[in-house]
Structure prediction request, 988 residues.
Amino acid sequence: MCADARPASPTASLYIHVPFCRSKCGYCAFFSEPLREGAQDAYLPLLLDEMALWAQRLGRLTVPTVFFGGGTPSLLQPEHLARIMEALRQHFDLAPDAEISMEANPESASPDFLRAARALGVNRLSLGVQSFRDEELALLGRPHTARQAAEALARARAAGFTNLGLDLIWGLPGQREGQWLESLRRAVELAPEHLSCYGLTLEPGTPLAEAPEEQRQLPPERELAHMYVHTGELLEDAGYMQYEISNYAHLGQACRHNQACWEGRDYLGLGPAAASTLGHLRSTNPESLSAWAELVRTRRIGLHQRETLTPEIRASERLMLALRTSKGLDLAEYRALSGHNLLSRHKSIIQALRQKELIRIHQGRLRLTRTGMLVSNSIIRALGFE
Amino acid sequence: MTDTNFIRNFSIIAHIDHGKSTLADRILELTGVVSARDQKAQYLDKMDLERERGITIKAQAVRIPYTARDGQKYILNLIDTPGHVDFSYEVSRSLAACEGALLVVDASQGVEAQTLANVYLALDNDLEVVPVLNKIDLPSAEPERVAREIEEVIGLDCTDPALVSAKSGLGVADLIERVITHLPPPKGDAAAPLKALIFDSWYDTYLGVVVLFRVLDGTIKKGEKIRIFSSGKDFEVMRLGVFSPENIEMPDFGPGEVGFLCANMKELSDAPVGDTITKAENPTKTPFPGFKKVKPMVFSGLYPVEPNEYEMLKVALEKLQLNDAAFSFEPETSKALGFGFRCGFLGLLHIEIIQERLEREFQARLITTAPSVIYKVKTLDGRELQIDNPSLLPDPSNIAELHEPYAKVEIHVPNDYVGNVLGLCEEKRGIQKDMKYLTASRVVITYEMPFAEIMYDFFDKLKSTTKGYASLDYEIVDYRQSDLVRLDILINTEAVDAFSVIVHRDSAYKFGRSLAEKLKKSIPRQMFEVIIQAAIGNKIIAKERVAPFRKDVIAKCYGGDITRKRKLLEKQKEGKRRMRRMGNVEIPQDAFLAVLKAGSDD
Prediction:
């Protein structure tokens, strides 16, 4: 019934959503449910069924990257993870050099789990640290301390992870630039290979967004702008290259999974709330364990929230995603996709953007400078949404 | 033909929301002209726009056959009137077609300013006015207090007001009887030459121009040759009839009767409101008094938001003009806005109405520039120019004399507010001409002042300074020399012609500063810095800055976020649709009207 869902190429990245958390963090809008006894036992067979279903439909995909996100993937029981990895190899051609990433929380990443994950082939770990200041961790509703975060990183190293990332959040309510840079320096001291630094966004419906006014008062825009620019400078000095608006890594250690997504390649998402983009079709699984389970059981997975990506939408998304990256937008490729020449169509704006050093154009690519990235929405709106 | 003794011509005067249309509906329903079932809410207000705003823009007339309680058959003609100062001439002509009026006042709210203007017009036209207190079934109704107020504020005998609830129909049957007993029948000589007043006309795609008229003397029949008094043009009556409320053909009309005619007229100007209809054979020597040609007084540029919608806009303007003799347009070009039209209007409300109709009926997306009056310029090289667009004002070094239109302004106000009104008029460069007490508490203040000052925010300020109790009527009297300068606005150092405005030299600095501030408020922050400057000639007198965005970024965008983030950006972009891009700056539509608010402090 889904014959038209064939991907443009027989290659797709794989995203697996593990929708369980011990507790919900105040800022998080991702789908998760509290971890209850037996919940994972119910989740696992459905996930395996979903995988089999897609494999049946799409044939044997080549999978260059796998990403376990959540939720809290580090809450998976090692034997469950083993079953997932086994099924993965059974249904798909996992590239020999495949990047297999996993998000982990400091408090749940036990030495046993980390060793098991590493042994099962997980070769990239992304630790959700968020801050190295305990009062900020409390504000964010994180169930760990700064010290525990550092210890988790050491455990991961001990377990054999050589590609480690830390996730941090800046621009917290009441935060001063100095306080943020303190966290950032502490992170750099721990010498991870990768850093994601996200400006806090108050997502509607999250506890933080609904907290009393004074508790969610973000720092002034000017200060946020400084935080962002200084983050990039500090990390560059420490040997991390910025490769996307919020992502920095040592050379060669950028997250390939996310890069593929920003480059507009196909990806298949498994688990509740996961999205897939295969050729001109995108579908998003429901944000509910029971609704997702129902779709898997009735073999209607991939039909939920299905959207046809018209050439216009693909061009807009191409531009929106490419301009997030430091590689920027390939103008020739964009021209082929959209049917028009970006430079001549928006001549005067582009000229002004260059003059203000918000964009650079070099060797057929248009990219945003760091200050350009800071106002990327405005630039993307002006250039990409007709 | 109906015996004049059994005709009553009347209109209903009411403030917006006080229940005029509801009362009209109820009268039509109780007299059986319209059945309650197939009644559209508020029959008299035809256009959607009128229904929404609760104001009547065009006049209407409905013929109501009515058998009184004594068994006698009557013809009642209910003539509706437009309700705003911009249309006061049309109102006065509609009232002139009546012998009486029902003054409807909300029994809980009391008399309001808008009502007053029309009551005075009615009294000026020697109409018998019957006070009607509406909404008396509301718990908050205070009929005694409001009756007293009517006596005090208007000076109208209100010992025995009609008490009704238009909504429930309570008291409306008695009110219809009262129309018979309290309003005088029309007078007129059927044997005299035809004299009929045109009180409304409009263009119908099928019928051509439809003329609403009231016969004063003589008779009119289908097939006769009529003459329009002012133009001397003759037309043959092709159709004669009444609206009741659907149109019904009639063979003829005599004195006191109200009806419509079609006579192969191609343009509205063939039958101007206020003009007199007579016959080609044996024409009347004296027309109905008070005819004047309605001319646009206020000019504004209308531009399509998207340049490629120019042709569509032109077609829409042509269609609107067919039905609105007071509206004019001609092509113009703006450096900032490209191709558009310079349009003439009666006043600001008229602009708003045309703008809304263009948007609603023709889906036009518009930029409206600040309105201007017509200035007369004598140049040093001996030319005389009429300027309706401030950006076209010649260089000051070549101006010998600059004249602006002056209006005679009559303000009716309770004496408590006299001080406030005088203060406002002085501030607006007014020259006091007269002030007289009509009653112990009611004052008429007469001023002459530049029309440009009235056009902007005078009416709003008058309302607020008198709590709404003042009424205003104005009339252009002449042109007078004034010390005026052109104020230009520069956006990122480029002069934007559409923002130019002509102001008096004494207030130019204050006005310029205020305008720059208002623009700063209405221009949203964007990618680039926006510098707003106000200048007189080469001299910058005010500067404001809209700082650029410093941070406008989505922190996370992974596979599961793409659709949502794309839609977010699309939605934000949609919000900018009504903006006009100039260079790298996006200017929202309302910025072009900031000049209207530049005089006020908030």
Observations:
- Chain B touches chain A at residues 526-528, 548-560, 562-563, 565-566, 569-570, 572-573, 576, 583-584 (CB under 8 Å).
- Residues 53-57 of chain B have pLDDT under 50 and may be disordered.
- The radius of gyration of chain B is 27 Å.
